[in-house]
Recover the amino acids of this structure.
């Protein structure tokens, strides 16, 4: 039995306001057809309860307006009920085959929820035989009425049931929308730019018989646009069901779901679980709503390997309920088929656009806005996708200092500067950040990975005025000692927007750096602070602590792009820099507990 609920609600007032409900003496339901005689269903108080009498007999394919009257010793309670409408509900249950469509409510309470004293129902087409079932009405008292209340909620004050029969009319026209037998479904993928058409068939050799459905696989070329056409047949009767459904397209809708990796367009995984998700419909009904006999699909680039997945097609029958938001749970289901799909790699095809790049080195360069030592921290993976672990250097910043952070992304294996590609495709990329709260006074908070609205001071923007993140600004807080700093690069083709977040798109980078300590200045640190001379240097560079002590720990020299140009371990004086080109460089020492960088110019 399919349950149809009609709601009748009352605000919480003393029971005397609508009469003593435990002394209800009668319930009358009047069914008024558009043409013909009224039908009366009654229940009367007998002994200690309400007893129904007779049965309800309806004509097939007939619309009935239904009115409910509840009486106590004083008479009709309708006016009292209309005044107090938010603590009670009147529910209806009807055998599924009895009604052609869901009950329509004709009155509402003050909250805009269905009241149910007046409703409309349509009896079903009998298809050459009477239909019998049950008509149930239940009156419940609820603590709180809502649009999700059900017949199981609250306390039932009465529950009444009548037998109901929908009588076959031999003179009536054949039933519209009588369920068709569909034993063959053909998907035809026609490439829009030439090539072989792909046809896949799902067939049931004996229709409703015991034999299983046979579904052929679908094999599509990579990076190809296809127009999909669907044909439905009843081969047992020689009928083209496609034509029948197209004549009733305002009542029908195809919905689709698919594995995300199969298609570049539409993106996502289909509109079965969310009607608003994209599907490229090419046909519409008379109400400008999609149908789905014709759709457009562009397969993904395979990146040198076949892509396998599933493709589900569902045809919904939604008479009088199809709208721009109706979905899988609305109406009946005429077909539901799962297909296997292979997107085949083409060795001759051009390389995939936006193919995932190998990133084995990320450099953060913090440049003080008011001068001073630039801080460089590198995360590197020596063998790229190989087994070696990522090596992430620590970051040491000066408290109460504003820095401009620049991020450089590289594939050192191929000698590629990925930062340039990100800048060229900035409308598809965005860096997100998270950090230990109170590391920075500006921006405040802990970043925008957990919440898109978290403040970050972006200095670069794409053509749509949306942030990118290769350049940002940070001001350290006074007195902060340590924490973590997380940098994530998201790839969001065709989905980056003012509301897109860390959860959208693919992840190209996600690295956590340690910030071990933040000191007030290099000269106040307990660690030895270096001095380098001559500055500018030509062939050799001397490095000592401020108290002229010789330093023996490791040293690394970076250029102004953050690339390591020279490593010395252990340090020995003087350092030969004659092979370095003229420019600006930075030297970093490993002196516990802090790494120290010193600005050096080579002439």
């Amino acid at each position: 039995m399919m349950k149809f609920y009609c709601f009748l609600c009352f605000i919480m007032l003393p029971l005397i306001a609508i009469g003593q409900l435990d002394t209800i003496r009668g319930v009358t339901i009047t069914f008024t057809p558009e043409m013909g005689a009224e039908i009366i269903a009654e229940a009367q108080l007998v002994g200690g309860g309400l007893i129904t009498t007779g049965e309800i007999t309806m004509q097939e394919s007939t619309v009935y307006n239904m009115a409910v009257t509840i009486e106590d010793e004083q008479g009709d309670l309708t006016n009292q009920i209309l005044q107090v409408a938010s603590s009670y509900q009147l529910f209806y249950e009807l055998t599924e085959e009895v009604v052609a469509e869901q009950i329509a409510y004709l009155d509402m309470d003050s909250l805009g929820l269905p009241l149910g004293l007046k409703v409309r129902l349509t009896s079903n087409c009998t298809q050459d035989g009477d239909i019998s079932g049950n008509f149930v009405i239940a009156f419940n008292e609820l603590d709180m009425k809502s649009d999700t209340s059900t017949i199981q909620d609250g306390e039932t004050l009465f529950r009444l049931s009548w037998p109901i029969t929908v009588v076959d009319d031999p003179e009536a026209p054949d039933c519209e929308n009588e369920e068709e037998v569909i034993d063959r479904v053909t998907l035809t993928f026609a490439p829009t730019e030439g090539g072989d058409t792909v046809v896949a068939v799902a067939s049931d050799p004996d229709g409703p018989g015991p034999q299983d459905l046979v579904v052929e696989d679908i094999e599509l070329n990579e990076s190809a646009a296809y127009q999909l056409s669907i044909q439905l047949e009843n081969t047992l009767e020689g009928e083209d069901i496609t034509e029948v459904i197209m004549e009733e397209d305002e009542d029908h809708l195809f919905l689709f779901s698919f594995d995300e990796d199969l298609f570049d367009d539409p993106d996502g995984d289909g509109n079965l679980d969310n009607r608003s998700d994209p599907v490229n419909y090419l046909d519409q009904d008379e109400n400008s709503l999609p149908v789905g006999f014709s759709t457009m699909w562009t397969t993904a680039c395979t990146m040198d390997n076949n892509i396998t997945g599933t493709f589900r097609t569902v045809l919904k029958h939604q008479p009088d309920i199809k709208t721009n938001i109706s979905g899988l749970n609305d109406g009946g289901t005429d077909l539901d088929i799962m297909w296997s799909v292979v997107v085949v790699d083409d060795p001759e095809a051009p390389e995939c656009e936006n193919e995932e790049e190998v990133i084995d080195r990320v450099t953060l360069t913090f440049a003080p806005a008011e001068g001073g030592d630039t801080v460089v921290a590198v995360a590197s993976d020596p063998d790229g996708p190989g087994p070696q672990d990522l090596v992430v250097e620590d970051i040491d910043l000066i408290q109460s200092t504003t820095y401009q952070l620049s991020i450089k992304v590289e594939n050192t294996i191929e000698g590629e500067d990925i930062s340039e590609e990100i800048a060229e495709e900035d409308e598809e990329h965005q860096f997100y950040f998270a950090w230990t709260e109170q590391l920075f006074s500006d921006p405040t908070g802990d970043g925008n990975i957990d919440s898109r609205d978290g403040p970050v001071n972006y200095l670069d923007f794409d053509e749509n005025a949306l942030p990118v993140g290769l350049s940002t600004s940070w001001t350290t807080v006074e007195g902060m000692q340590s924490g973590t700093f997380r940098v994530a690069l998201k790839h969001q083709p065709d989905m980056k927007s003012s509301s897109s977040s860390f959860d959208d798109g693919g992840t190209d980078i996600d690295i956590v750096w340690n910030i071990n300590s933040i000191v007030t200045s290099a000269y106040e640190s307990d660690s030895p602070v270096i001095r380098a001379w001559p500055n500018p240097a030509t062939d050799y560079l001397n490095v000592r602590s401020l108290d002229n002590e010789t330093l023996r720990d490791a040293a690394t020299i970076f250029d102004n792009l953050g690339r390591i140009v020279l490593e010395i371990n252990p340090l020995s004086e003087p350092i030969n820099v004659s092979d370095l080109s003229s420019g600006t460089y930075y030297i970093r020492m490993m002196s516990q507990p802090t790494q120290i960088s010193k600005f050096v110019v080579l002439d």
